[in-house]
Structure to design on (205 residues):
């Protein structure tokens, strides 16, 4: 089961320059605030897709929910 | 219905998105949401008084598979306005709070927080019923 640290590491590894602050009460539901220069000029949908791309096929499975807030620095 | 190949499900989903200016794919129904994220999204739409179609994705797992393949979005709920994916629960909540959701929906911004009471007019629509 992924921990909040695992999820943070995955996001930061997949989005160069990103900083992720991840919380999870149960290692199934996660809440992340991600700040990345890479989000500049992207719509919210595109920003969230960038984050989701780090979790191919796992969202809705092992990671039941990932509540997401994306921002530029 | 069980003999339906997946692409017919995808076609039915695409058709539903095309036919309904505002359509929400969710777990459960607006009257009985089966997930907190779906419930929050329904509450935001209802508090703006925007009419919307709703599709429960739970009756057949293929609905979710095909929807996510079509939208390139992995999670539920998914809100579409005028054929475009607007977002899931987090984006809808952010847009609700900033007033962008009202603007996107073409309604007046609500001053009250999202209410949980169901609003008449938000009827569930079963994709599976369209596939017989």
């Amino acid at each position: 089961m992924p921990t909040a640290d695992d999820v943070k590491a995955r996001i930061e590894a997949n989005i160069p320059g990103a900083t992720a602050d991840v919380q999870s009460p149960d290692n199934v539901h996660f809440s992340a605030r991600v700040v990345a220069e890479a989000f500049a000029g992207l719509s919210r949908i595109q920003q969230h897709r960038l984050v989701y791309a780090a979790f191919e096929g796992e969202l809705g499975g092992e990671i039941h929910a990932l509540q997401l807030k994306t921002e530029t620095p | 219905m069980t003999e339906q190949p997946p692409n017919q499900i995808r076609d039915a989903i695409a058709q539903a998105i095309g036919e309904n200016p505002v359509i929400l794919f969710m777990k459960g129904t607006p009257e009985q949401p089966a997930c907190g994220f779906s419930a929050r999204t329904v509450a935001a739409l209802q508090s703006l008084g925007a009419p919307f179609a709703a599709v429960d994705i739970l009756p057949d797992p293929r609905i979710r598979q095909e929807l996510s393949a079509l939208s390139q979005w992995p999670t539920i709920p998914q809100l579409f306005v005028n054929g475009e994916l607007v977002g899931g629960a987090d984006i809808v909540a952010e847009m609700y709070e900033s007033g962008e959701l009202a603007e996107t929906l073409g309604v007046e911004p609500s001053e009250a927080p999202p209410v949980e009471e169901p609003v008449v007019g938000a009827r569930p629509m079963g994709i599976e019923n369209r596939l017989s």
